[in-house]
Amino acid sequence: MPARTFRARAKSSLLPAIFLTLAPAIGWARSNGVAANGCEGCHAAAPNTKITFTPEPERFEPGAVVTFRVTIEHAGLSTAGLFVPTPDIGQLRTIEGEGLKLTSDGFLHSAPKAGTNGSVSFRFGWQAPSEPGAVHFEAYAVAANNDRRSSGDTPGFTRYARAFGCEARTYFFDADRDGFGSLDYPTTEGCADEAPAGYSLTSDDCDDTFDYIHPGAPERCNEKDDNCNQVIDEDADPVELWPDADGDGYAAFSGESVIGCVPLEGYAADRNDCDDDDPTRHPNAVEVCNLVDDDCDGRADERVRPQCGEGWCLRDSVTCNESSCTPGTPLPETCNLLDDDCDGDVDEDSCGPSAQCVDGACMSSGSPEPPPPTTPPNPSSTGGTASAPPSPPNSSSGGSPSAPPAFPGPSSGGSPAPAPAPSPTSSGSRGCAFSPTRFDASSLFPLLALALLLLRRRQGSPA
Q1: Within 10 A of 460 (CB to CB), how many other CB atoms are there?
Q2: For residue 250, is it within any domain?
Q3: Which tens digit of pLDDT belongs to each residue from 173-206?
Q4: Phi and psi at residue 77, to the nearest 5°
């Protein structure tokens, strides 16, 4: 084969390599966005972007058309995207030039908006109903640093409420629905004559996880301050008590009962001790790794045995010795909310180059929302999968920088689960305002032309 022909073919085979090497890695912002409850599905960072609602005018009457400004703030913000679900009442209106489009789900950015000094604002219109009431908004946003990686962006969430045409009052979240709210959760705003569901005008509940504990409740003989007067068991009626052989405050399921009031030596009101001969074992005990059920929940060593492996390969040791632990076998990565290949990343590169995994479903720009995923099984060898705690609202009428927190656990143990806060109005998936790095072929044509020109000049030169 002539040397020149070989060189020409060699140069031709190198052309795709030159083409791809010179191509810039382009971070593709979702021009259409995704209407979803949260941006953590794509942007795996703590949701601490601050989002603030500002109405113009600040107070308004029924039937008024109000302009709302939603400001997104974060120190690393370069551009930002926004999703505002359709509120419970009233009618949304677009404002030209704000970069928001009105969809069946609510307002969604049509293009990410550039920020200044770590801040971006979007505006939209809203017409109040003709009758007095209170409107409740939610907002999901992502502050992007424009570094072409979704992992460097920061999501955010807030709720906002505003009463109109009535006397506005501040309401407190009532987790146990006993009619008394608590200062443990963010507040909301409503009309004075109608409290929003799950809220109360009072904030003096001293334990918002038990509906029988609140101001004015009858005091019971249970070592709790039932009526929230900072005195325990005063003037309480006696109750049935059971023998407590080990003195840990918990009685066994056997023995003769007496009528009295705790504390009574040798007796307890709680009859659920799983070992009344061992004071270290009772329902309020701390579980330690000893192959024994310390906290009397029917499981031994849950969440305290040595572990090994990562992701789907994470396993508990069969003993309290780390050397007895064997990790699971890695699997090919698929879009299912799990780290199948056990490399520490979830669903990475599981949908190919033209789509992205969002909450267990492969989605491309403009794709419909995926259905809520089913909860995957827990690969751990001990115990079942613990369900996530319910979340209360996370903002007052002013807006908040954080995502909804889980209910804080009160000091008293053995409580029933508090009532969940109202769920968001939009669909249950998490979405993204920005996609990770995506290859944009249109920007490569000038480079391709340059490479072809250089190749032709080389072919025309002497060998």
Answers
A1: 7
A2: no
A3: 999 999 999 999 999 999 998 899 999 999 999 9
A4: -70, 130
